[in-house]
TrEMBL record:
This is Lrp/AsnC family transcriptional regulator. Keywords: DNA-binding, Transcription, Transcription regulation. Residues 8-69 form the HTH asnC-type domain. The keyword Flavoprotein does not apply. The keyword Transcription applies. Pfam families: AsnC_trans_reg (PF01037), HTH_AsnC-type (PF13404). Signal peptide: none annotated.
Amino acid sequence: MPPGPDRLDATDARLVQALTDDPRATVMALSQRLGLARNTVQARLARLESGGFLAPFDARVRPEALGYRLGAYVTVQVVQRSLEEVAAALAALPEVLEVTALSGAADLLVRVVAVDADDLWRLTEQVLAVPGVERTDTALALRRYVDHRVAPLLERAAGADPAPGG
């Protein structure tokens, strides 16, 4: 698939890799490191930001640093045709970090954080009280073996690793 408005090319991937290595790098430092004109780097950064290619900065903050030491995944079964309303209600809860629609028995996978077990109980009661929620099932996150990452995909896109199947 060729690079397009919805895909990073190798130069974009190298630029994002450089930003990952040094998030405070200036445009000039990035242009020198990548061997690109300053204006090229500036334009590509603007396109990446405005195109939604880069996650918000708050994604780098660990909830534990804010006192939310307990993580859990809640699967939610929703009344037919209520997904949008339920998802919007869940998004209004500060402890809800992600809501993902699923195929299969559960309709939504909700990643939540809590201060402790009592706080998680309160939160799951709030989720159950959302109009349109039929059933929930909660699983505690005990240990994360692989943090959210994109670096291996960036390396592949930048040309450091062959594409799958090739």
